[in-house]
Amino acid sequence: xxxxxxxxxxxxxxxxxxxxxxxxxxxxxxxxxxxxxxxxxxxxxxxxxxxxxxxxxxxxxxxxxxxxxxxxxxxxxxxxxxxxxxxxxxxxxxxxxxxxxxxxxxxxxxxxxxxxxxxxxxxxxxxxxxxxxxxxxxxxxxxxxxxxxxxxxxxxxxxxxxxxxxxxxxxxxxxxxxxxxxxxxxxxxxxxxxxxxxxxxxxxxxxxxxxxxxxxxxxxxxxxxxxxxxxxxxxxxxxxxxxxxxxxxxxxxxxxxxxxxxxxxxxxxxxxxxxxxxxxxxxxxxxxxxxxxxxxxxxxxxxxxxxxxxxxxxxxxxxxxxxxxxxxxxxxxxxxxxxxxxxxxxxxxxxxxxxxxxxxxxxxxxxxxxxxxxxxxxxxxxxxxxxxxxxxxxxxxxxxxxxxxxxxxxxxxxxxxxxxxxxxxxxxxxxxxxxxxxxxxxxxxxxxxxxxxxxxxxxxxxxxxxxxxxxxxxxxxxxxxxxxxxxxxxxxxxxxxxxxxxxxxxxxxxxxxxxxxxxxxxxxxxxxxxxxxxxxxxxxxxxxxxxxxxxxxxxxxxxxxxxxxxxxxxxxxxxxxxxxxxxxxxxxxxxxxxxxxxxxxxxxxxxxxxxxxxxxxxxxxxxxxxxxxxxxxxxxxxxxxxxxxxxxxxxxxxxxxxxxxxxxxxxxxxxxxxxxx
Length: 677
Fold this sequence. Notes:
This protein has 27 helices and twelve strands. The chain is mostly helical. Helix 2 crosses helix 4, helix 8 runs parallel beside helix 10 and helix 11 packs antiparallel against helix 20 (526-541). It is globular. The model is unreliable at 1-35 (pLDDT under 50).
């Protein structure tokens, strides 16, 4: 079954690409019908109704575009130079980055998904209206198409309810209490008709869950989908996963016992945030997450371990001779970049060319091929921060600051000092002769799979493991600050998010032209859901709590860790941690911190960090520290390997939720601004 699912997903990936291209390109469909004849045309037959269905799909926000995806570039785990554009023109900087540098505001908010401007890829409310129009006109008694069977009609209704639920969830993540809009208001509506109130957090979550529960009745499983026309559309498991994420958010500290929001009421006197701590919220989240994971496993989803060694991406490595180290690193990268692999629960076929261009490297020789061409494919700037790099585990699978060997050998204290790699590291991790920071030695295979660092081996790109590509980030070297004054693209921190580039993505030998391999960017993969299940188990009753299959939190952590060559959580801390940390996994508080860092490590750069640190309410601590990187202007190792403060962000309680634009509040006096804005 698992092999069948994997083959099926790969086989029909092309079909899904065509489907989603139809969704994203038919922008002429993305209209608000303004009179009865138009609506009658939209639903007069199956063909036109399906076009409107794709309009609803097109209302989903972007997931893989670094220019307008909060999760990719708004979380501070990745940062661009504010002047990192040709000619230093900040007008072309992503609003996600500008928000990080400048902070948000209520007059003209960055990434305003409420109104669909200042960097937001969609007006989410407009997307919800599309869904309401569809639901109000697709049924036969409402004038819907007669040339379709009722099972198909029910499936389409379920898909649109899932889209609508996700759009509400998206707003819920960003704004907290939101209005519940369950009908399509006529274009002519104004005044009191549109003067809606924001609804309490619990009511919003219940509404989203209710839509998803209704949708699950008629959504298909992957095996029930027609691969020639339906692959890539919503399934029962996707709906269950969105439900689980909604209830985990509701149970998390942001909305569970957050005293900052206590007493926040609208002009009706309605309390918009829950009061007190509720164990029941975590129990409800646990049940939903357990059900989502069981559903995914029934569909054939697995924690991916590579069997093809990148299908020729590394010429001298194949399934017969691949080492355990290379297999572990390639498996994590392929869990993200292998199209429609068996770990993906929900993916998107958005074009990843821009993301890969920004995250990929140019070698020294490739930089020399610019030759005054304008080099439109220079893009290296998707740069993980030094802060984020330090979050990755040691080679023992524990935090570097908790590792006994890192302490006793002075590696942690001297982590910014440089050295030349020994034979242990040159075989898989660091190019022979390349002096680099001690911070880059003796790290987990997840680190080496995820981060491109100065002198570090960059697997794939058609290069053999015996003579691999590697980035050189110093000034006047490849992938670094070379030509920055002219072309404006470079890594601000001295790192690149290697994990987000396909193993085959490279540059032509003769000119700076990206040769990229497309992939289905994962919105939800099984490792994400396993980590959420571990979190729920621990929050309900600590390490001893088990799920419907008798598994505890350790089980799910250990399954994921095994892919990257790490021992189990309890064993790793007992064997390798300093004395004061050895018992960390044994209680709820310690295990909570481990689960959070596991999510940071496993899901790095995939768009989860921005939302996780907010729902955990750890963002104040994280974002009030300086954001660090290496000195990109350094021409010698000693100059480059000088830690530099790149940015000092400011974050306070109000920043956990987005502001609603002042003008929007003036248009609807029943809306109330989020606390602190």
